[in-house]
Amino acid sequence: xxxxxxxxxxxxxRDRIVADLSRHLGDGRxxxxxxxxxVAQVYRTTTREELTGVLADLPAPAPARSAKPRSRFPIWQxxxxxxxxxxxxxxxxxxxxxSLGVGEFTYFWPVWVIGPWGAVLAVxxxxxxxxxxxxxxxx
Length: 139
Known about the structure:
It is a single chain. By secondary structure, the chain is mostly helical. The chain folds into two domains: about 1-65, no CATH class; about 75-125. About 60% of the residues lie in helices and about 0% in strands. The chain contains five helices and no strands. The protein has helices spanning about 10-25, 30-45, 50-55, 75-100, 110-125. Helix 1 (about 10-25) packs antiparallel against helix 2 (about 30-45) and helix 4 (about 75-100) runs antiparallel to helix 5. Residues about 135-139 have low confidence and may be disordered.
């Protein structure tokens, strides 16, 4: 039985090296054939020293960029709010065109479109209903 002097590599370390190789492939430093060869080499290695040799001729990965700050509102609430705003502007323009055509201000009917819909969206946003955290099942 042969005992290696190096520390054995874990699967997580191999996965990290493969992820680094994927970034180098995406950046154009290596081609697909070389990527396949290096990935096969990664999974053949047993020690950490052999793993670092796979990336020896490639530059160190760039520091991770900070993630964009997440919005307080989920994407579907932002989509609903933009739809509400678009429809609100549309009905206001229609009301204004009718009022100009008649020559006087007509009954302000857009309030029945803008008001209830906006109130529902505001309550849902303020209370977090359908925000995802109240409907998640714990596993």
